[in-house]
């Protein structure tokens, strides 16, 4: 089945690292994604990872994938107030054709 | 290209009325998706098109919902006899995939959404 879970809320101080976690259930997922949603806006793709990779780094973003535990995380280094948003992880399902999203983690960055 | 456009951005209607949303995808994208997002939840898949063909519909898409993409470019999502439970943000996304069974990352580009409020 398709089920993606995330913690609801994370609060950090500016300059700290943020780690947002996600668990998924579909063992056949081959791509996992992180999207960001700011108030009143659509979802913006941040990064994605293929399931045969353990880690992917892109500037301040580091994605870690533990396929055995079906656990995905997004680390944001040197978090800024502009990073405050809702972050969604998503997995591909149904033969790569659609994305299934988690409930989202609201990140609040305080000065 | 200005990305994925959705219209209207906000629609307020009375229960029982019909509403229609329009989505203009990125011009070179052949895939178009509709998602629904309620407050505090992630987007839920409704349906998707490959060019003009509607290839999959979610169980969430009741008989009151219909989506079309007549020429493989823009799409419309119509909700008939709206109910208060239809109040949500309706998101459109597009992507480029050459084959129905194509592998590889499916990178969806989302529009800003159309917010529906049913009174």
Q: How would you describe what is shown here?
A:
The complex is a heterodimer of chains A (111) and B (119). Chain A is an all-beta fold. Chain A is built from no helices and eleven strands. In chain A, the strands form two sheets. In chain A, strands 2, 4, 5, 9, 10 and 11 form a six-stranded mixed β-sheet that branches. Chain A has a five-stranded antiparallel β-sheet with strand order 1-3-8-7-6, with no helix packed on it. Chain B is mostly beta strands. In chain B, strands 2, 4, 5, 6, 9, 10 and 11 form a seven-stranded mixed β-sheet that branches. Chain B starts with a strand and ends with a strand.
How is this fold's topology laid out?
The complex is a heterodimer of chains A (111) and B (119).
Chain A: E1 4-6, E2 9-13, E3 18-24, E4 31-37, E5 43-50, E6 55-58, E7 61-66, E8 71-76, E9 85-93, E10 98-101, E11 105-110
Parallel strand pairs in A: 2-11
Antiparallel strand pairs in A: 1-3, 3-8, 4-5, 4-9, 6-7, 7-8, 9-10, 9-11
Chain B: E1 5-7, E2 10-13, E3 19-24, E4 31-37, E5 44-50, E6 53-57, E7 65-68, E8 75-79, E9 88-95, E10 109-110, E11 114-118
Parallel strand pairs in B: 2-11
Antiparallel strand pairs in B: 1-3, 3-8, 4-5, 4-9, 5-6, 7-8, 9-10, 9-11
Quickly list its features.
A: 111 residues, 5-stranded antiparallel β-sheet, 0% helix, globular, B: 119 residues, mainly beta, 47% strand
In short:
The complex is a heterodimer of chains A (111) and B (119). With 111 residues, chain A is mainly β.
Treating each run of at least 4 consecutive H or I residues as one helix, how many helices of chain B? 0
Form type of chain A: globular
Taken in chain order, the helices and strands of chain B follow as: EEEEEEEEEEE
Taken in chain order, the helices and strands of chain A follow as EEEEEEEEEEE
The helix content of chain A is under 10%
């Amino acid at each position: 089945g398709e089920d993606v879970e995330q913690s609801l809320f994370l609060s950090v101080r500016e300059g700290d690292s943020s780690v947002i976690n996600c668990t998924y259930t579909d063992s056949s997922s081959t791509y996992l994604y992180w999207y960001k949603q700011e108030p009143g806006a659509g979802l913006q793709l941040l990064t994605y990872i293929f399931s045969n990779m353990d880690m992917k780094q892109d500037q301040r973003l580091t994605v870690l994938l533990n396929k055995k535990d079906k656990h995905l995380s997004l680390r944001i280094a040197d978090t800024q107030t502009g990073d405050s948003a809702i972050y969604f992880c998503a997995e591909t399902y149904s033969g790569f054709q659609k994305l299934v999203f988690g409930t989202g983690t609201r990140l609040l960055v305080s000065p | 290209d200005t990305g994925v456009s959705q219209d209207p951005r906000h629609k307020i209607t009375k229960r029982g009325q019909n509403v229609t949303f329009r989505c203009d995808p990125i011009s070179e994208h052949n895939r178009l998706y509709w998602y629904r997002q309620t407050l505090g939840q992630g987007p839920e898949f409704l349906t998707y098109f490959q060019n003009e063909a509607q290839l999959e519909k979610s169980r969430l898409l009741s008989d009151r919902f219909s989506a079309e993409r007549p020429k493989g470019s823009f799409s419309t999502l119509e909700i008939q006899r709206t109910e208060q439970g239809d109040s949500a943000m309706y998101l459109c996304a597009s992507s480029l995939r050459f084959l129905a069974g194509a592998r590889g990352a499916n990178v969806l580009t989302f529009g800003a959404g159309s917010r529906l409020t049913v009174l």
